[in-house]
Design a protein that fits this description.
The protein is built from 13 helices and 6 strands. It is an alpha+beta fold.
């Protein structure tokens, strides 16, 4: 008798090999009937699996299918599409045509590039000569002010429109610079690139990540836009913003600590010059009464967001000029409607507003840069 260390293979009815049945010890020989029964069951199960596999392969075999189709008495089944699936609807045809057109465009592009949109051409109608603002510029800025359009992708597709509007603004500034220099002899005639602000926002330290401003703007001061003392000296500001928000402004916005202290020292010493400027009838006509608004709104030089709620440190809260001493920004602004911006006399109106603002600009510059005695002398000369 063979020792139980080998293995035997059984051949089924199909002639294939079967898994080996191993005997691991002599104890397995003590129950031959159960072992034989187990082997017969295993063999039968394997035979059934092979028969089912063979039938499955036969069903998939092409020759078998042909034989069944040619067999007499059997009719081939006909499959008919449902009415919903038959034919192409107009929407499907349109989608397929768009996909085919897109594929053709993509084939013409270099590898790695895809079409993201169609570049919008600059308008050819409605253009104006230098020194004027067209409706095309206002329309572009209106679109740019919408959150869904103020992104880099939309801006790139509308760059030709932007370039045309930007050139129109540069031409306007170039014509306006000699005008404002004539009105205010302290403003030098500088090229547009030295007074115009970029339309791109600085979003590094801002929660608002909108990449573009909502209008064109330019600043005029003694040293131009790029000067180190720009924010420390009073200046004129012009901006084109649609929706009745275009403006001309003048004043000192949040001056430095030393300049603010010097200005307050002048007010404590003698505030008559500043009071006379903001109380002038023409000044009041454009900017309102020379006193704080009852509801805290902006009026004349009062009502800015950075205005102090209490008296500055070391100053009596009952001081007669406490309203002036609470100011941090001293500035005024005048707004224009869109219809006024596109009018032919827009530049003349801006010139007139600058003439009204000029005494405030000169007064604040002297109060922030000159000692108290010299400032008093200059106020007497202007009077």
């Amino acid at each position: 008798m063979a020792r139980g260390t080998g293995s035997k293979r059984r051949t089924g009815s199909s002639g294939g090999t079967k898994p080996a049945v191993k005997t691991k010890s002599a104890n397995s020989l003590t129950k031959p009937k159960k072992a034989a029964t187990r082997k017969s069951k295993q063999t039968k199960h394997d035979d059934d699996c092979e028969d089912s596999n063979t039938n499955a392969l036969k069903e998939l075999d092409s020759d078998a299918l042909d034989e069944e189709e040619d067999a007499p008495g059997k009719k081939r089944k006909k499959f008919q599409r449902s009415p919903k699936k038959m034919g192409n609807t107009p929407l499907k045809k349109q989608r397929r045509k768009q996909e085919e057109d897109q594929d053709e465009e993509d084939e013409d592009l270099p590898e790695g590039l895809t079409v993201v949109g169609e570049v919008v051409r600059a308008p050819t109608e409605g253009r104006v000569p230098p020194g004027k603002i067209s409706q095309n510029t206002l329309d572009f800025l209106k679109q740019l002010a919408k959150p869904e359009y103020n992104d880099r992708e939309w801006f790139r597709l509308h760059e030709p429109v932007f370039r045309q509007a930007e050139k129109e603004w540069k031409d306007w500034i170039e014509v306006f610079t000699p005008v404002i220099s004539e009105v205010d002899d302290q403003i030098p005639e500088l090229p547009p690139k030295d007074v115009i602000h970029r339309i791109y926002r600085d979003v590094r330290f801002s929660n608002d990540k909108t990449p573009y401003k909502q209008g064109f703007s330019a600043s005029f001061s003694r040293s131009g836009r790029k000067a180190f003392l720009l924010w420390r000296l009073c200046r004129h500001l012009s901006a084109i913003i649609p929706g009745g928000r275009s403006l001309v402004a003048a004043g000192a916005w949040q001056p430095g600590k030393n300049e603010l202290a010097t200005m307050r020292h002048h007010i404590l010493r003698n505030s008559s010059r500043l009071r006379n400027v903001i109380s002038d009838p023409e000044f009041v006509k454009f900017f309102g009464k020379p006193s704080p608004h009852p509801k805290g709104e902006q009026q004349n030089i009062f009502g800015h967001e950075d205005e102090l709620k209490v008296a500055p440190k070391g100053i009596d809260k009952n001081h007669k000029e406490i309203n002036l001493l609470k100011l941090r920004s001293v500035a005024v602004m005048h707004h224009f409607l869109d219809s006024e911006v596109t009018a032919t006399d827009f530049m003349d109106n801006v010139r007139h507003v600058v003439e009204v603002m000029r005494p405030l600009v000169h007064c604040l510059n002297d109060m922030m840069t000159l000692p108290v005695d010299e400032s008093d002398e200059s106020s007497e000369e202007e009077a």
